[in-house]
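Entry type: protein chain
Record version: 2
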Amino acid sequence: MLHKVLATSAIALMCGLSSACADAVNKAIPAATVDAPKARALASETAVLAGGCFWGMQGVFEHVRGVKKVVAGYSGGAAATAHYELVGTEMTGHAESVQITFDPRVVSYGEILRVYFSVAHDPTELDRQGPDSGSSYRSEIFFTSPMQEKIAKTYVAQLGTAHVFGDPIVTKIEKLDGFYAAEDYHQDYLIHNPTAPYIVYNDLPKIDALKRVFPTMYRDKPVMLTAAR
């Protein structure tokens, strides 16, 4: 975690103690034109997304209505290398990711992706997010079904055609081969460490943005993984 501690100084210089980079993560974007209908959905579905440090990604989606559980973990590499210190070498193929279990009758996969692209991370940054750099911090969607693949690819094309972002979207879209939960001390890290400088400057503004940009999707009390187990 040393890289996160060192990055805090740079974040503070860029953002200032009060603004906490809020202006960088408050952009509303169009809804997905292709999405799964809620009326015909099953009671539970899983999405796996990578977009920088999993502390913030987990923290954001734990505040989304309809989400039942969010696990921080690793995707893209082998089970044997799904360990924090190994993933940090950038040689495992893994990305820090989150496994989101949600009720698609309440929040659709397309809506999950809308939060992902707008307030959870910056999809135009290649192999980095904010102060963190390396392929383990890449932007990637790991689809778990043909429908998820269709929705994700269509949405990326939609956002690209509309020039929603100033730079091209670099998000990779690949089939999920495996998700491996991270070490226990990473789970609900944002909730347990709300005053940590890295969280204050880099991740809490994303939750504020979720509340501000998508008030109907936001819930004040997060669904903690420890409570869901």
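Comment: The CA atoms of residues 67 and 102 lie 4 Å apart.
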